[in-house]
Amino acid sequence: MSYNNVLVVIPARGGSKGIPRKNIKLFNGRPLIDYTIKAALRIFPRKNICISSDDEEILTVAEDLGLEISFKRPDCLATDTSGSREVLLHAVDFYEKKGYVYDTLVLLQPTSPFRTFKHIERALKLYESDLDMVVSVKESKSNPYYNLFEEEQGFLRKSKKGSFIRRQDVPKVYEYNGAIYIININSIKEKDMSDFDKIRKFEMDEISSMDLDTPFDWKIGELLSNNF
C-alpha cells in the first residue's frame, strides 16, 4: 500500500488522570510520546503524521521532536467523555478541507512505548481496502470458556458455555492492546469502530503490547525498559 494515502493520528490530550501529564512524562529519559513519534517517522512522510492535542505543552514537545503541528484539538473533544471516533473524524475533516484526501487512517496511541515501527509495518501488510480495520491484539489470559463469569440470578455462570476441562483446550481469545489501529476511512465515516465487522488481527507479544495506563503500569514498564 502507498503510505502517501495514509493519515497517521497520534492522540494526546492533556488531561490524563491515571498518570498526570503522562504523554510527555519522561519514560526512561524520554517523553513518552517520543517513542510513538519516532516509530511513525521511520515509516510515514512527516506531513502525514498528525498530533491531535488540546495542550500547548504537548504540541510544543511534539514539534521539538520533529513533527509539523497543524492544529489544536478543540476543548469539546478533549473531555473524559470524548469518543475516539469524533477525534479521528475531526482530524480527517481538517485535512480534507485543506485538499488532502486519505483513504486509510493509522491510529497510534502514545501509551504503547514498546510498539516499534517494525510492528506497524507488519500490521500494514495485513491491511486490505475491503477491510474495516486491522487492529493489534494480544492473547488474553482471561477466557469466557474457562475463567470469566457473569452473574445470573445471584449465581456465577461461565460467560460462554463449553465442556472444556483444561485451559489448553479452550479456544484462544484476544483483546485489543491499544497499540495499532489501521482503519478504513470510509468505514469510520459510516459507523463507530465498535460496529466494524471486517476486522483482521495483528497479534503482538505481551511485553510489546504493554499499555501504560496506571502508575503500576508505569513502574513495570520502566523495569522492562531498563532490561531492553
UniProtKB/TrEMBL annotation:
GO molecular function: N-acylneuraminate cytidylyltransferase activity
InterPro entries for this protein: CMP-NeuNAc_synthase, Cytidylyl_trans, Nucleotide-diphossugar_trans
PANTHER family: HAD SUPERFAMILY MEMBERS CMAS AND KDSC, N-ACYLNEURAMINATE CYTIDYLYLTRANSFERASE-RELATED
Annotated protein name in UniProt: CMP-N-acetylneuraminic acid synthetase
Organism: Maribacter cobaltidurans
Lineage of the species this protein comes from: Bacteria, Pseudomonadati, Bacteroidota, Flavobacteriia, Flavobacteriales
